[in-house]
Design a protein that fits this description.
By secondary structure, this protein is mainly β. It has strands at 3-7, 10-12, 18-25, 33-39, 46-51, 57-59, 67-72, 77-82, 91-99, 102-105, 109-113. 31% of the residues are buried.
């Protein structure tokens, strides 16, 4: 059974930082491209960042230079470090694992940026 379990969401003030983690089980983690997506009510889920098994990264335009994705294959964990947070970063953040036609999602964690 595949499970992706996110943690680290919460409330943070504008300009602050927050780190998310996602632990995967039931997959060969090192083979999967792991990613973070986010969604707000009424909008489509959008890519935040993703990282391949070889550590090649891709970022959404709105987070470039502020967010950093990384992975620890020994711990089956993908991380997202979010700095210089803005109110428009408020969303539910979802962890994603992908290997060819196989795609898995976590349950999501709320990130709220507000003063």
């Amino acid at each position: 059974q595949v499970q992706l379990v996110e943690s680290g969401g919460g409330l943070v003030q504008p300009g602050g930082s927050l780190g998310l983690s996602c632990v995967a089980s039931g997959i060969i983690f090192s083979l999967h491209t792991m990613g973070w997506y986010r969604q707000t009510p009424g909008n489509q889920r959008e890519l935040v960042a993703k990282i391949t098994g070889g550590a090649r990264t891709t970022y959404g335009d709105s987070v470039k230079g502020r967010f950093t994705i990384s992975r620890g294959n020994a711990k089956n964990t993908v991380y997202l470090q979010m700095n210089s947070l803005k109110p428009e970063d408020t969303a539910v953040y979802y962890c994603n694992g992908n290997y060819y036609q196989n795609t898995y999602w976590g349950q999501g964690t709320q990130v709220t940026v507000s003063s």
